[in-house]
Amino acid sequence: MSMVMARRRARLESVLAAQVAAVAPAQTAALEIDELRLYPVREPVSGRAWTVVRVRTRSGVVGYGECARASSDDLAAAQRFWAGRPATSYASALADSPLAGAIDMALLDIVGKASKAPVYRLLGGPTRSKARAFASISGAGGAGTAAGVKDAIEAGYRAVGLPVPAPAARNQGQAYQLELRKLVETVRSQAADFVLEGEGLLTPGDAASVGAAIQSLHPLWFDEPTTIGSLETLRKIADESVAPLGFGRDIRHAGVFQDLLRAGSLDVARPDILHFGITGSRRIAALAETYYVAVAPRHEGGPIATAAALHLAASLPNFFIQHIPLPAAGEDRAMRAQLAGGDLERVKDGFASLPNGPGLGITVNEAVLEKYHAA
Amino acid sequence: MQRRGFLALGGTGLAWAAGGGRRPADLCGCALAPQPAGSNAFGGLRSGVTISGLKVFGVSLTRDSDRPYVFVKIETDQGVVGWGEGTLEGKAGAVMACVNDFHDFLIGADPMQVEHLWQSMYVQSFYRAGPVMGSAISGIDQALWDIRGKILGMPVYKLLGGPIDARGVRGYYHTNASTRDELAKLRETAIQQGVSCFKSGIPGYYEWIETDAKIRRAVASLEMMREGLGPDIDIAIDFHAKTSPSVAQILVKEVEPLNLLFIEEPCPPENVAAMAKIARHSTTPIATGERLVASYGCRELIEMGAIDILQTDINHVGGVTGLWKAASLAGISGVSMAPHACEGPIGGLATLHVDAALPNFLVQEICGQVRPSAQDKIWEEWLGFPAMRMVDGRFPLRDRPGLGFDLSEASLAKYPFGGTRPMARAFHEDGSVAEW
């Protein structure tokens, strides 16, 4: 064999090897689910609680997700359904199970690890290189609000969630509006954008008045202006101001988003990531996209769900901003950082970076799950 | 080669892009200054795979075919290639040209960012939908999913969260059996082969308003079908938009006792309120959607509660990405999916991957009959297996990465592009234009 031929052969072989490596199936055959485990956890100071679900495959690949509360009966039902099913069949999820959102995250974590890709790549992303984020501030009024905003800005945020003052009665007068305006000025004076968080505390009439009063102050949106009762009530609030409205807190069925969108009452769709998981939120985002409406998933859980939310953000075209829980106490922050790594929830210039390892791209410290177990 | 041919034919639309990304000065003042590609933002987040080639093939099974297949092949610098299909009946040349319009955009892009590329192709094309661009994007999108599956080492249905049913994807064949004997024989074959559903067209052409005789004949033909096939085989009837809403509303009401699986396209697709009016007159499930582009195109039908079943076609709706999204919004309102498939084998196979991962999937079409045809033989010759043939009433799912097949350019060469041909035309007795 001549030198030239040998060289050509070697080059051909290297190309073929690269092709074979690129198309060789990963270890997907061994992705049958073996065991599900629950870890209820709680931040030590704030008391914010959530449940971590760990899914393990027969081959030993482990994935994590988060949901709200789940009982041992829920776990047993989920275990019966999933045992022996492949992790890739994550779209089969039992929508009614309180564990559904967590299992969806955990299975995508596993599929990503098996195919050596971050979840956002599995889902066709990245559609963006970083995710805009906001943190809600606590501290009712005056100096408390100012300190909360300062804290969030020092943590890297450029937008905050500003809770409305707690209403004293069913019908608020002018004093309430003035108090609200002062709170907004506190945020503005520190050059931060804000989401006005109604938290469902206001009556529809008060919500409409607040919406009209703050519309010219340009909140990013008015979140949960009132509890979702009748669609017509919400439509009236939407009609009486041009402030964008966000809903999601009480929504447990995606059909409610369809109803709100049809009525023209929704500007920011806020699927709860602990309930809908990544896949359910993606379906709601696909619906919202056809109404030219953005998605900003709700998230009141821990750092695993933050990772899931960031992958979700990078897989969506119509993602706008992600809420990241920012506890006031240093001890709570340390717990979150120890649980899934300190970089994950770090925000810089208003944006969080995408976790970039396979699956959810985080390493979960199970000792922390045990330490902060919520009995 | 292909592309140069198109430029020579089609003028100089790509010239500015080829000349280093500089636009000519625009006279209306509305063009953006050239910007660095948004993909610069992704830097280290790129997968490391890059699109290096785009080819489009017109494939005519017969020289005068009115529906040549449009196949898209995307090549990457890693040697992995992907295939997709953007066949659009009667408009093959236009789709091929539209695929080529995306050439400069795609070369150098990261094929794994399929959602991002889809958005860019659709949104930044400014005019958004339309069946020609929808089909071009569909072909490109399928090829990108084929590549991503191969790179990630998984069949596309697994990436999408399937299979929900490991036995495969339930399907139906077409039939034109209409006599008692033919129907009895079809029933026997169906039971032998495990096929659980058939679709047939409604016979004849229909005027704006129809006579008593014509309506009775139509209803009788469907009654005969139910009688011949029995109560345990599902029957779908395609009106093919041959009927006006005024005629369709009578028919959907009168065939209610037959419990059909669905009635398809009882009127043309543009007017959703007309479709909703028909649907409100009957409990017979109404299906439509094969002519719709992107999830945007399906919104109103679902929002108005006009349909029970959505039939978007993976070759027009926007590929795997478009079909999954359309199915997602359908699912939220409890609408089932029965995707249309009446073109080539690539789109057919691609649609099975999406079907397998849809919680709201009902049944998959294939425009073929229980007995394999010459077309089925050609598909098998191309792909090495009987694509889109059912086993026990289901399309099997192959456990191979990507869309799960290999195809060589050489095997297509036997069926060169015979040019774009107009679709068949039907006329009424007085010479006026009829829907078919």
Provide an overview of this structure.
The complex is a heterodimer of chains A (375) and B (436). Chain A is of the alpha/beta class and 375 residues long. In chain A, 41% of the residues lie in helices and 15% in strands. Chain A is built from 13 helices and 13 strands. Chain A is globular. Chain A starts with a helix and ends with a helix. The longest helix of chain B is centred in the first third of the chain and has 22 residues. In chain B, helix 5 runs antiparallel to helix 6. Chain B is built from 16 helices and 14 strands. In chain B, the strands form 3 sheets. In chain B, strands 4, 5, 6, 7, 8, 9, 10, 11 and 12 form a 9-stranded mixed β-sheet that branches. A 3-stranded antiparallel β-sheet of chain B has the order 1-2-3. With 436 residues, chain B is of the alpha/beta class. Chains A and B meet through helix 1, helix 9 and helix 10 of A and helix 5, helix 6, helix 12 and helix 13 of B.
Summed up:
The complex is a heterodimer of chains A (about 375) and B (about 425). With about 375 residues, chain A is an alpha/beta fold. Chain A has helices spanning about 5-25, 70-80, 100-115, 120, 140-155, 175-190, 205-215, 230-240, 255-265, 275-290, 305-315, 330-340, 365-370, and strands at about 35-40, 50-55, 60-65, 130-135, 160-165, 195, 220-225, 245, 270, 295, 320-325, 345-350, 350-355.
How are the elements arranged and paired?
The complex is a heterodimer of chains A (375) and B (436).
Chain A: H1 3-23, E1 33-42, E2 49-57, E3 62-67, H2 72-82, H3 100-114, H4 119-122, E4 130-136, H5 142-154, E5 159-163, H6 174-188, E6 193-197, H7 204-214, E7 222-223, H8 231-240, E8 245-247, H9 255-263, E9 268-269, H10 273-289, E10 294-295, H11 303-313, E11 322-323, H12 330-340, E12 347-348, E13 351-353, H13 366-371
Parallel strand pairs in A: 4-5, 4-11, 5-6, 6-7, 7-8, 8-9, 9-10
Antiparallel strand pairs in A: 1-2, 2-3, 4-13, 12-13
Chain B: H1 2-10, H2 15-18, E1 51-59, E2 69-76, E3 81-85, H3 92-101, H4 103-106, H5 114-123, H6 131-152, H7 156-159, E4 169-174, H8 180-193, E5 197-201, H9 212-229, E6 234-238, H10 245-254, E7 262-264, H11 272-279, E8 286-288, H12 299-303, E9 309-310, H13 319-332, E10 336-337, H14 345-355, E11 364-365, H15 374-383, E12 394-395, H16 409-412, E13 426-427, E14 433-434
Parallel strand pairs in B: 4-5, 4-11, 5-6, 6-7, 7-8, 8-9, 9-10
Antiparallel strand pairs in B: 1-2, 2-3, 4-12, 13-14
